[in-house]
Amino acid sequence: MIRTHYVSELNPGMDGEEVTLAGWVHEVRDIGKIVFIQLRDRSGIAQVTAKKGVVDDSVMKQMNLVKESVVKITGKVKKSEQSKKGYEIIPSNVEDLNPVSTTIPFEVTGKVPADLDVRLDHRHIDFRRVDSQAVFRIQSEVLVAFREKLVGLGFQEIRPTCIVEAATEGGTDVFEVQYFEKKAYLGQSPQLYKQLAVIGGMDKVFMTIPVFRAEKHNTTTHLNEVLQMDIELGFGDHNDAMDVLEAVTLHILRKVKENCAKELEALGQEVRVPEKIPRYTYRDCVKMLLEKGVKVEPSADFTKEEEKKLREAIPEELFFVTEWPTKARAFYSMPKKDEPEYCNAFDLMYKGLEISSGAQRIHIPELLIEALKSRGLDPEGFSFYIEAFRMGAPPHAGWSIGLERITQQLTGVKNIRECTMFPRDRHRVTP
Questions:
Q1: Residue 427 located in a structural domain
Q2: Are strands 279-281 and 176-179 parallel, antiparallel or unpaired?
Q3: pLDDT score at 408
Q4: Is the pLDDT of residue 113 over 60?
Q5: Which of 210, 303, 387, 423 is the most buried (most CB within 10 A)?
Q6: Taking Cα atoms as reference points, which of 375, 343, 381, 342 lies closest to residue 361?
Q7: Is the separation of the CB atoms in 132 and 109 below 8 Å?
Q8: Quick one: 283 and 336 in the same domain?
Q9: 82-86, 297-301, 302-306 — which one is most confidently predicted on average?
Q10: CATH number at residue 353
Q11: Same-domain status, 290 and 362
Q12: Is 115 domain-assigned?
């Protein structure tokens, strides 16, 4: 390895120890007899100080670098009361590993704001920003915690396909692809396939998988390619699925709070972890909105504005909305026995935004055919799916967390495009 240490591994107790760091020049300050460089790597920023008469003249010349130069610096750690970290690096050798030969498109330090589209056009540079590093470090922790908790709960990870013959949720907003001599689609959801895994005896499964929705939206909370974190649970109902979702979500929040304190501080965010997640019915929520003077369309999904108003009406940051109108949910959601106009479906709201959705599934073939027809869908297009339920399908339920959405709410960024490495929206397919 080129380096001996990351910046985060250094401390004043290493006074006099020689180290080699590698990273980018974050800032340069030349005040004549002293040149300061802030060297940035993925773990933090260290100050390198070259003083004329203390270091060789050749090293002083090596310090003549432009910002965002990629460098290797060898030197000794020196205690310093003037430095915020309590130490600085006195260099003995500075090597420019690949001289910058073009203009950096925007200021990485953030001192000069850059338009989001400019940043996304040069995403490899945007990743160097401290804020961007923090967002994706937190997102990584979310993924690790998701897997960690579900493995601990006895779930098995699976990898279903992303290429399907029929629109998986019966919608029209799908991306069509030419699959040899056939027409196929990019999957809107792994829903049908994770159910087949449960019917196949795997019982408790989870996955992380990209999904694609050809919706012509232009909002700060939607993308056309997202990563879903899904589970499906056999021999259980919606309440069992919500119990698992609660355990996983609280574990994610706890791990982000414990392991990403530096990143949260950089973004100015705080993560609060409740003991429990309260559950409100759809009808409870409609009543609260009406009391606030918000007109709600009966039996419809909540608009983004209504979701924000709910956040004002409900004291908790994190809560479930349960027992949704059947017409407002996907065709495979199990209707309530005593009130079929409502179903065993739920959403998880976090800081005013839906971050997860799930339901108990219909596992009775005749009921499934009836649900498809009621939505104007041809059961023949779902024949392989329906037939699976004639072969000993148990009751089951599941849910999905949107990785980008939970990242957005944890990090406080205003646009969800900042929460995916290379966003795909209505207009962007590059880089």
A1: no
A2: unpaired
A3: 98
A4: yes
A5: 423
A6: 343
A7: no
A8: yes
A9: 82-86
A10: 3.30.930.10
A11: yes
A12: no
Contact 46, 89 (CB under 8 A): yes
List, edge to edge, every strand of the sheet that includes 176-179. Answer: 163-164, 182-186, 176-179
pLDDT tens profile 369-404: 999 999 998 998 888 889 999 999 999 999 999 999
Q: CATH number of the domain that 19 lies in?
A: 2.40.50.140
Domain end among 96, 111, 143:
96
Question: Which CA distances in Å does 157 have to 119, 163, 199, 407?
Answer: 35, 19, 15, 21
CA distances from 372 to 36, 48, 330 (A): 68, 66, 10
**Strand arrangement of the beta sheet that strand 225-234 belongs to:** 156-157, 204-212, 225-234, 396-402, 353-360, 342-350, 318-325, 279-281
| Residue 238 to residue 347: CA distance in whole angstroms | 11
Residue 39 belongs to domain spanning: 7-96
Give the separation between CA 332 and CA 371, rounded to whole angstroms: 7
CA nearest neighbour of 146 among 228, 234, 240, 203: 228
Residue 117 domain flag: no
Q: Do residue 81 and residue 131 come from a single domain? A: no
Q: Are residues 144 and 92 in the same domain?
A: no
Residue 424 forms part of a structural domain: no
Query: Of all helices (H) and strands (E), which one includes residue 267?
Result: helix 261-267
- Contacts (Cβ under 8 Å, ≥6 apart) of 418: 116, 132, 135, 408
**Residue 219 shares a structural domain with residue 364:** yes
Contacts of 10 (CB under 8 A, 6+ apart): 19, 46, 77, 85, 87
Q: Could you give the C-alpha distances from 314 to 72, 177, 285, 319, 351, in angstroms and in order?
A: 53, 44, 9, 8, 10
Q: Give the rounded percent of residues in the chain with a pLDDT score beyond 70.
A: 98
What's the rounded Cα separation, in Å, for the pair 363 and 366?
9
Query: Does residue 83 share a domain with residue 212?
Result: no
For the chain, the domain total comes to: 2
